[in-house]
Amino acid sequence: MDTIEATDRLEELDSVVVRFAGDSGDGMQLTGSQFTSSTALAGNDLATFPDFPAEIRAPAGTTFGVSAFQINFGSSTVLTAGDDPDVLVAMNPAALKVNLKNVREGGLLVIDTGAFSKRNLQKAGYDTNPLETPLLDRFQVLKFDISKLTMDAVKDYGLSNKDALRCKNMWTLGLMMWMFTRPRETVIKWLDSKFASMPTIRDANIAALNAGHAFGDTAELGAAIKRYRVDRAQSEAGEYRTVTGSQALAWGVAAAGQLANMPIMFGSYPITPASPLLHELSRMKEFNVLTFQAEDEIAAICSAIGASYAGSIGVTSSSGPGIALKGEALGLAISTELPLLVINSQRGGPSTGLPTKTEQSDLYQAIYGRNGDAPIPVIATATPGDCFDVAIEATRIALKYMTPVMLLTDGYIANAAEPWKLPDINNYPSIAVTQKAARDPSDETAFNPFERDPKTLARPWAVPGTPGLEHRIGGIEKSSETGHISYDPDNHQRMSDLRAQKINNIANDIPLQTVTLGKDHGALAVVGWGSTYGPIDQAVRRARAEGLDVSHIHIRHIHPFPRNLKSLLAAFDKVIVAEMNMGQLITVLRDRYLLDARSVTKVSGQPFKIRELLTAIHEELGEQGARAAE
Amino acid sequence: MNKPITKLTAKDFTSDQEVRWCPGCGDYAILKCMQRTLPELGATTENTVFVSGIGCSSRFPYYMATYGFHTIHGRAPAIATGVKLANPELDVWVITGDGDGLSIGGNHLMHALRRNVDLNILLFNNEIYGLTKGQYSPTSQEGTRSPSTPFGSLDRPLVPAAFALGSGAHFVARTIDTAQKHMPEIFKRAHAHKGASFVEIFQNCIVYNDAVFESFTERSVIDDRTLDVRHDEPMLYGKEKDKGIIFNAKTMQLETVTLGENGITEADILVHDETNLTLAHMLTHMTPPDFPMVIGVIYCNPATSYERDMIAQMAAVKAERGIPDMNAHLRRGYTWTVE
């Protein structure tokens, strides 16, 4: 071990970005999420970014097997997982190789030299050991043999070498908790329950955690290493927890069922990154949530449609490739005008694309991706916590207007965690549902399943089992007068108009577009949707701190748009549309409003960095921006 | 609401829609039989749902005065599964064909049968694609000349009943569109069976595949060329009931015999056991002209149905966890309070 000078400096920081990186089998996601829990308990605001490979266990030591977990925490509002890590924990050469380029100049590297064997260096593509070259000179480096230190810490527990080495993530976590003055109790409690049936493994992990912490306390760590304190964030008063988008979405779906006082039928098929939603909902049966793992994506949506037809709230979920398979059935739900919630946890595309990386490139698919003129409402979540409210709002629209609704989230929101101010379900209005009542047997008139509510244009929900409402529906065009099959050309025009009008009218039943940050007019608006909320907001916040006239507009309802969006956008001299695709929202805005805007896009599988957006803002504002950039 | 006590009739199950199948289509006979049989089952129009896919047979729901859902190609079993899961009290019938159920929708049919969802699945097998104008189907005989196979089809046909058994179906039966006395019995058995009931109906397409089953369905030969199996009864067939099936233990094959020939007596004839899966597999693979075509209930071995198991599991969780509390659910695990 290198000898380093001792120190007990405690540096105060506003915010820190820490990135844990190691092999897929090194337990970095667990390490990161445990660090997150204790950080939340310490009262910091935070955002996380789990960044892992698509392979379950890629060959050990390779760069494509590197799994990372990034957390940004601070004493003021944190909306992104941070641009560049201040601290990188690299558990092997491959983790160093993949992540080093992002670490800020002067940042701290914590490196397990025990994993820097000749073989591992080769696998990572290093010809020479980077620890012995000037490559790391611009960083502070803490390197020690974590593997050996861990083995020493757990040697009394009689574990196999392999099991003993698996404790090294807890040793590292212990060190990092020392470094950031984090309490260890939550982690110990978690280890207690996780390994309740394996007391030896539990005790060894706790010992490793404590050893890592004690190492920080007692080892002669040098000036390079500081302990940091990040003050509690000034959050709004209330009760908080950390939540991932998948959790909040699942709970929102179940809450919608409760608010509507109706059962949920969730038909789904496993796909990354949407599966956690199925997992979470399958544990919520007491909320009248029935989950069905179907044989494929098509059966998943079809079962949900069947359930909606029979009087439940049908919900289906997938990612882009699965949504593509659901397309024909979605058309059936549109044509038969049945309520349905379709959730897309977007990932990189096209085709299989980047299953574990985030993207917003299914917007066209959501709005346009079906045969025929087949409009549906499209609504998008902004943050993990926001998923709860968006699920309820989407369900409300589906039930009120008898229509499928597409809810867009993405891999980043699904997996990322943030502190969430817990809502009180009693403060949400109930969702009114009208299923048509049985008819008097003496009523001789024919029942028309397409006799619309004049206000919403929704057709009645006539549920099988109800006497007097027996009717036949299907994907063939139906007569607006009787609901029977109709090939009449005028009728098809009329029904197409009605279907479009019904969806367009929803614009009158959603909140007006507001400005998230800044004035409602001015030099520049940065427009975004979905998970770009955090980085755009931070970039606009910084630009405004520089004195620039910039506002942030975040769009939740993408189809139909809020009815004031056009006039709101017109009140700005310039508009930037920032999104993680090749420019899809901007196309829609141009199409609807003939909007002249600048497109800022990114499809690297990583969220926007604040810096990237700030640069775009500077460029767009010309001289004013250039001065600010200096 | 008080229901009229008067017994329902076929008319009550007949919708006001004009039937649009080709004149002479076998589907008419099946429709009439269904409309006639449902009142005998004690079915009500409001609790009966017909779900279909796409194809000639899939127009069936429009002609029934019950609830009906004409869905998309091949997906009826998946939609019907959702219907049944949402409301297990409904009587759900799935109407499909050889193209709809075994080609584009083969996967869903397999899984509905495997899960044993309580659906009555009627597969109208006419060995051709009718609605798309006559292409060969997955049950067409090898060499079928059709618009898409002008020189004869090359792929070997599927045996629907064998597919159903292989998928784990607990009820497999066959009947014939023209067998107006036989078909109602099969419908009643299918309806009584709780779990997925698979019924293959040999159905004549008069336009694109006329007389394809004539070799065993034609009135003058039907007795000699079909074997109507009945549980616990010897497998005898023929006008004089003098032909039968025996099991040859040496070859492990079924064989046809004639009573009185080579010393064969009725005691030698195999007795049908509809709970015997091995026997069911052998019967589905007996094909004319060497054997009679087997009709009737080939296999019936009830097991609990998927939706019943689902209800039981949900009830158990609800009983254990009590009245759900969303606020409490959101607050499970670590929470903290900001003053």
Would you summarize the structure shown here?
Chain A is of the alpha/beta class and about 625 residues long. Chain B is built from eleven helices and twelve strands. In chain B, strands 2-1-3-4-6-5-11-7 form an eight-stranded mixed sheet, with helices on both faces. Chain B has a three-stranded antiparallel sheet with strand order 8-9-10.
Features:
heterodimer; A: 630 residues; alpha/beta; 6-stranded mixed β-sheet; B: 339 residues; 8-stranded mixed β-sheet; 3-stranded antiparallel β-sheet; 12 strands; 29% helix
Describe the structure.
Chain A has 21 helices and 22 strands. In chain A, the strands form five sheets. Chain A has a seven-stranded mixed sheet, sandwiched between helices. Chain A has a six-stranded mixed sheet with strand order 3-4-2-5-6-7, sandwiched between helices. In chain A, strands 19-18-21-22 form a four-stranded parallel sheet. The model of chain A is unreliable at 1-8 (pLDDT under 50). With 630 residues, chain A is of the alpha/beta class. Helix content of chain B is 29%, strand content 19%. Chain B contains eleven helices and twelve strands. The chains are: A alpha/beta (630), B alpha/beta (339). Chains A and B meet through α1, β9, α9, α11 and α12 of A and β2, α2, α4, α10 and α11 of B.
